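Dear support,

I submitted the protein below through the web form. The confirmation email said the job was done, but the results page showed an empty box. After a refresh the structure appeared. I'm attaching both so you can tell me whether what I see now is the final result or a partial one.
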Amino acid sequence: MGSLIPGRGSPGTSRSFTLILGGGGARGFAHLGVLRALEHHGLHPEAVVGVSMGAVVGATYAMRDDWYRAVLAMELPRFPGRSEPASEKSVGRVGSIRRSVAALRTAAAMLFDWGPGARAREAGLAELRKLVGPARLERARIPVVVTATDLRSGRRVELRTGDAVEAMYASGALAGVLPPLERGEQLLADGAYVDLAPVDIARELAPPVVIAVDAGQSTGAPGIRNGFQAIMRAMDICHRKHAQLRFAQADLVLRPIFARDISVLEFGAVRECVAAGIRIVRAEIETIRRVLAP
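What the results page shows now:
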């Protein structure tokens, strides 16, 4: 076998590589664009490591040939937390009351249940089953590793075998939004909490080059006016700085540039995010080829 997956290109055209697909929520759909553009240029990862939304895209890619169409077909508009269309936003006193009521409901869902997404858990699992059915990670067409965070121990959990749907769900279960996945003594949630870029895992999978996709988005926060906003901003800074340190260990990092701020649960922006992924590969294709040069 050459450096590319059999049937996908000519041997020796480039070195093989492992692709790390990080988190980012809705922005993680940029991974679709990255993979699509890489394949357009004849570049195919021989292994994938997925975190959070990257786990959904990566596992689907590793398990089915029509991965692009399948992920785009996911029905996500009803997922809790989506941005309210501008035409439906309420203004004035009535709008303020409605927003306050919505905030109270969200707070109640987090205090007395696992979060506002608890009701959508089964619908989310159903969408994941549409992607991969009863498939198991160890039977994927290329090696795939999905990571999650054990909330009880605080440790990273590597999922290399077992039910693919459970692995994808666990890796993307945002704390306070979706219920974590109970697995024995473990309580599994979003893999990005402990490690957004598991470069060490990628290097264990044999391909010599590690390319990572960082779908994070750092923006300024001029409107910090109270303690809660300050805490949230501080947490965001810590998260991004830790992510930068981890991503820096890869051989190449692709960072899609989004035309505007896109929130984690803004699934109406899927195609914008896919386009951002395509654009970054087009912009960096010469760099990618140099990194993969034999």
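Response: this is the final, complete result; the empty box was a page-load delay. The longest helix spans residues 270-291.
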